[in-house]
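Contributing new records

If you add data, match the layout below exactly. Sequence lines come first and carry their own label; structure lines follow with theirs. Keep one chain per record. Anything else will be rejected by the validation script.
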Amino acid sequence: MIGVVPRFFYRLGQIMMFLGDVLKTLWHRPCRLELVLEQVWYVTLQSFPTTAMAGFFVGGIMTVQFAMQVNEFGAAAYLGGLSTSATFREVGPMLIAFMLSGKVGAFTSAELGTMKVTEQIDAIRCLGADPIQEVILPRFLGIIISSFFLLTGGLMLSVVGGATLGVLFAGINPQEYVRHIPTIMGWPSILSGIVKCLSYALVLATICTYMGYFTTGGAKGVGRAVVSTSVLTMVTIVVFDWGTSFLGQLMLSWFAIG
């Protein structure tokens, strides 16, 4: 245990330094826009079915869980507001981000790791180009943009999944389900979900590009990088979830005072 904690902070420092290099490159030597759009399209096309399915079933699961509680108090009409608010604020962004970390993060880490161990990145450097500008930056920006919209779209589909399960499981009219969403879910819940989506997209893009860019050890090293990417991304997302939940409570308090 003594060696695990220093190793964690050492890895965290390396990731932050890598993020600083990427942002510095973005500021001084931005990559071509078409490369970013290509990555956005590729990641979105690759991950939309997974994100849509995850969002639909997360909303449905939350509706089923809340339906067991609200029926006891005769408050079934507020089921849509309760389940949607909880999905947007807490459960939805984190679970959908977990799915993306296994889909987008692992794939990007494996792709960059393969380029590193086969010396393609070194060849780019030998040709006088900057690998961060040509290889890392388009993927970094593409993952952030596409993951943000995928997470947001997944949350939208969670409302559809919640309404569907509300009809099938609780016998609630879809119009009644949707009508009470604004009653409980206000702007603080929406802003909290948006902030979490953006934070998780940044975490995912940073970790998967870092792990792929610094892969060593041949094919076995690529496998280790993929596993480390998935585990580290999930742990970091949980930590960010705690931090953003704390900020969300501050926002709720600020709106209440205002």
